[in-house]
Write a structure and sequence with these properties.
281 residues, TIM Barrel, alpha/beta, eight-stranded mixed sheet, two-stranded parallel ribbon, binds zinc ion, 8 helices, globular
């Protein structure tokens, strides 16, 4: 829907992301589930929530998840607000999460715009601050009122299967998501998927090596298979009229190295994807 680039994932690789928290008890139950499955996720925390629940922010860090940010108080006007206000929202969110953690260096340079309401000015600002703009490849409508956990899981799995790889957006603030998550993880495991943990590159954690082509969003898993050997310079991003977000942007995003982590209950091997800088061209 939004961008021509996504994370350079391999077949059957999924990145779990959680937006809008932290909000106990849902957030802490989600953490319990992730821990029991040895799965690492990427969080996009809201500054105001981090201020209210700093203990949960620290628990997310202590349990090894990646922490990015999602503005100070989640306004759904990023596409229309003056840039100065957007800057305040972005920086306010980062400051609040930094304070909760007690160390600004522990906040990943990853930002997801509330409601994915992008604008070029905001993206340029984020890029100028070396913040990676994240979108999503698929969601599961878990913020819909009255949606059941089974339906969230069904939508998550069918959307993941339709692409065969990508980043899933969930919200760790909803009770239905808490109930859906074990179903999603069990089903992904049964279908041979691996969860990839995305981390910011830093000293001792080198950027993963990738090729430009790996960042391109493909139309579907079948299209990707037939085009496996050839670059897809203008890969379509989603079916026309698709109501849901279908791609990711990682401006100034990076490259990857595959690092194998051990001790995974979820899969025999887990992967880590280390990001920074720009995709190779
Ligand atoms: Zn949000």
């Amino acid at each position: 829907m939004q961008y021509r680039e996504t994370l350079p994932l391999g077949p059957h690789e999924v990145v779990l992301t959680f937006d809008d928290g932290p909000l106990p008890p849902s957030s802490t139950k989600i953490l319990d589930i992730l821990k029991s499955e040895c799965v690492k996720a990427t969080y996009f925390l809201v500054g105001e929530m981090a201020q209210n629940f700093p203990d949960v922010v620290r628990r997310i860090r202590d349990e090894g998840h990646t922490i990015g940010t999602h503005s100070y108080d989640h306004p759904l006007t990023f596409h229309t607000m003056p840039l100065a206000k957007a800057e305040k929202e972005i920086n306010g969110g980062i400051d609040a999460v930094s304070k909760a953690l007690g160390n600004p260096a522990e906040v990943a340079p990853f930002f997801r715009i509330p409601g994915l309401l992008r604008s070029e000015a905001v993206e340029n600002y984020l890029a100028s601050r070396s913040l990676v703009t994240w979108s999503v490849d698929f969601d599961a409508d878990d913020w819909f009122r009255h949606i059941t956990a089974n339906e969230i899981a069904r939508r998550a799995i069918s959307r993941i299967e339709s692409k065969g790889r990508g980043m899933l957006l969930l919200h760790d603030i909803h009770p239905a998501t808490v109930t859906a998550l074990p179903i999603i993880l069990k089903e992904l495991k049964a279908r041979g998927y691996h969860i990839v943990h995305v981390v910011p590159a830093q000293p001792g954690r080198p950027v993963t090596v990738t090729e430009a082509q790996q960042w391109q969003v493909a139309a579907s898993s079948s299209a990707r298979r037939t085009a496996a050997a050839a670059p897809r310079p203008t890969a379509p991003r989603s079916a026309a009229g698709s109501p849901r977000p279908a791609s990711a942007k990682l401006t100034p995003a990076g490259t990857k190295t595959r690092r194998v982590t051990t001790g995974e209950n979820f899969a025999p091997v887990g992967h880590e994807l280390s990001l920074s800088g720009r995709p190779p061209s």
